[in-house]
Every structure is written in C-alpha cells, then in structure tokens.
Amino acid sequence: MTFVVLLKGVNIGGHRTFRPSVLAMEMKNLHVVSVGAAGTFVVRKAANRSIIREEILPRLPFKTEIMTLGAREVLRLIGSDPFADQIIRPDIVRFVSVMASRRKPLSRLPLSIPSSGRWSVRVLSCQGRFVTGMYRREMQAIRSLGQLEKIIGAPITTRNWNTFLSIGKILQS
What is the pTM (predicted TM-score) of this model? Predict the structure, then answer.
C-alpha cells in the first residue's frame, strides 16, 4: 500500500530543521518522494505504517509526531474538492490539517477564529482525519492556527492545499 507521511512542526522558523530530500534519499528502498520542505513524503513501495516509522525515527535529529495516511484517503479528499465553492483570492490560503487520530467531527462549521470580528482562520469542513479551511496571509493567522489544535483536541499538522494537490499528482503517476 502507498502512504503519505506528514511530520509535525519541522523546518518552521529555524526550529527542528532537517533536509527532507536527504531523508528521502536515505529511504530509497521504500521509493520515498519528498514533497516540499515541511516534512511531507509519499512512500510508493508497499510497506506498513510501523516499518515506515522505524525507517524515519532514527534518521531524525529530534522527536516529532508522524502522521501516516493511506493513499486512498488522500485521493478521496482531493476528489471531494472541499474548496469548490470558495472564491480563490491572493490574500487567502487554503489549508488541510491532519489529525494524529480520527476524532469526533467539529460540531459547528464553519468555525471562525477569532469567533467575532474579522476572521484569521476559517474552518470549513471535517472529513475523517482531515480538517479543511482557509487563513488570511497575516501574522495573526499563525496564532489562530495554533488555537485550532486546542479546539480539535488532537495533535494536528497543517499543509497548504496546493501541497495536497501535488501529492495527488504523485499518487496518480
């Protein structure tokens, strides 16, 4: 089975830095493709989640959450196009947060952070382990995204929707 692997909180602001391309090369036996610099990988050789973890953990110079997704669930999310009815603007970024484990869906959606006034982050949907939304290109949005983990009640890692579209192209090739 093909997997998508997301590392939480790496290569952000000079903290917990490493070179994803080097890690991918070190794991060439699993046919790993690195996607961007935020610790996102596609493992194309048939493996299971525990083997992937055993390959990654000793190669990282720090501890981090590893979120492993099946290719089918990622392709299902992409195929559902959760942003189809949203207007694309240059000052708005579409994102997908992945929960470490499946949780009860958020009850009131859409959800805006802050809850009153101009929103910095807007959560649109919750599908399985995926939380989709948008944030404004502003510093306030980073703090608001940090609150999202507390609201959900589970560790999450967030990627740009464009990263998921790139993952989809790799999975379909």
Answer: 0.91
